[in-house]
Amino acid sequence: MSQLRIYDTLSRQLIDFEPRDPGRVGIYACGLTPQAPAHLGHMRGAVLMDVVRRWLRHIGYEVDFVQNFTDVDDKIINRSREEGISPAEVAKKYSRLYLNDLAALGIEPARWVYVTENMPVIIEMIEKIVERGKAYEVDGDVYFRVQSTPEYGKLSRRKLSDMQAGARIEVDERKEHPMDFAIWKAAKPGEPSWDSPWGPGRPGWHIECSALSLKEFGADFDIHAGGVDLIFPHHENEIAQSEAYLDKPQFARIWMHWGSVQLAERKMSKSEDVVMGVREALERFPAGAIRLYLLGTGYRSPIEYSDARMEDAQRAFDRLRAALNRAKQMLGDAVEGPADDDLCKRFAEAMNDDFNTAAALATLHDTIGQLNERMAEGLRGQEERAAELVRTAEWFGGILGLPFEEPEAESALVEKLMAAIIEWRQELRIQKQFAVADSIRKDLNAIGVLLEDGPEGTTWRRS
RNA sequence: GGCGCCGUACCCAAGUGGUUAAGGGAAGGGUCUGCAAAACCCUCAUUCGGCGGUUCGAAUCCGCCCGGCGCCUCCA
Fold first, then answer.
1. Is there contact between A322 and strand B, defined as CB under 7 Å from any strand atom?
2. What is the predicted ipTM?
3. Measured at the alpha carbon of residue A163, what is the angle toward residues A157 and A166, in degrees to the nearest 5?
4. By percentage, how much of chain A surpasses pLDDT 70?
5. By C-alpha distance, which of A355, A341, A329 is closest to A392?
6. Which domains does chain A have, with CATH numbers?
7. Is residue A106 classed as helix, strand or coil in its secondary structure?
8. Cβ of A265 < 7 Å from strand B?
9. How far apart are CA A103 and CA A97, in angstroms?
10. C or N: which end of chain A has fewer Cβ atoms within 10 Å?
11. Does the nearest atom of strand B lie within 7 Å of A31's Cβ?
12. Nearest residue (Cα to C1') for B26?
């Protein structure tokens, strides 16, 4: 099988993936600050990393996937004032909401870490950085000294001098350099705080991911991931801090960044009103359609949201699912056995090529196409091949996390009612009372039940 | 102003030096069917924003131009 290659933002090239510890992969993905409902942009990264984990595991690695909740931060404090609940309650409320969203999309749980539960390692890291002369204290704040690191800017490929020109932010005169950033912030009255050598305060944004990833994995861990919008300043600063702390340039081996999800040509972010919330998306479309939509484009490209695109994805997903379920009905239980070698190889080539899920999906579609072909011929001695295709497609679906199983079992009452209606309507059809039969089908369709009259009788499913 | 990305059919999209340019959705025709739906078959880019260049050969490399976008400030 081909070698897995992953695009690394720092070196701007595809890297032959080789974990630090043979057989084991450590991945740290920046989570989020739980202070508002999540939107599809968050789900893009979550779905991608879910597929990455499944694939890595498939090719033989043990995967440890860590993600953080930045559960104390300015935005949470602001939110707590708006909602009249404590910052801790804000964090708990929105992180729970987020975990529900992930579950609804079939995303495997990460190993979650929380900033507020890890103050000692964060403070210890800051102390060490100050000790090394790479950070300084001013009135209870601690700032990272960007000029102490000649390589500052290497991830985002920008120079301090260039950034000064564009910086139109209010410059804090107490800082040595305008780009110096806070790694510890002194608490103002009423704000949540933790004791530290610089007085009560909380960690600055960026330091938590450095501290937590190094705590969980140690230096030179395998993959650090996040959205493109985190490249600067978040990941740039993480690198600067971590390397200052470690005193060597080996923080993470590969930096993976996924593209943004845009709506109406604008990036979705929580500071804009134009967001497609996960809840709204899930109310309107099945999880499988959302995953198909998100995985249909290379993860590094920006992707635009539109209802039309989601509808396309839903039609495509329904076709895949309907074909598989029909095949399983026709084949009964006789589907055990291996998958198709050639198709699997094609799928693997795609996945090993920097997780090319779009190409992998094309293989899935071809697999289903071949299966439909056999079914259109009424199977006729091709049961073995059909079963092989079913296994192959289900295997691909497993890697991509596509929920092909029927949505939910119907209650016995519904099953009996439908059977009765279908039988009654069948009587009408035999008596050639087509107008009445059609009107029944039409009425059922209006309430979301689709009747399909086939050669072997009438079947029904939710539409 | 700085850094970076993108422009492939009606829409989405893979492909980054060499067989007929994946796949999905839509559309049109056909098969099946009482009809509808589903499924199957066929059609749907001699061409990859434009113009030059490199090469035996380019959608793929280089240059210029046109158009769109992201980041540089909170962001996944």
1. yes
2. 0.94
3. 130
4. 94
5. A341
6. 5-267 (3.40.50.620), 285-400 (1.20.120.640), 412-462 (no CATH)
7. coil
8. yes
9. 10
10. N
11. yes
12. A312
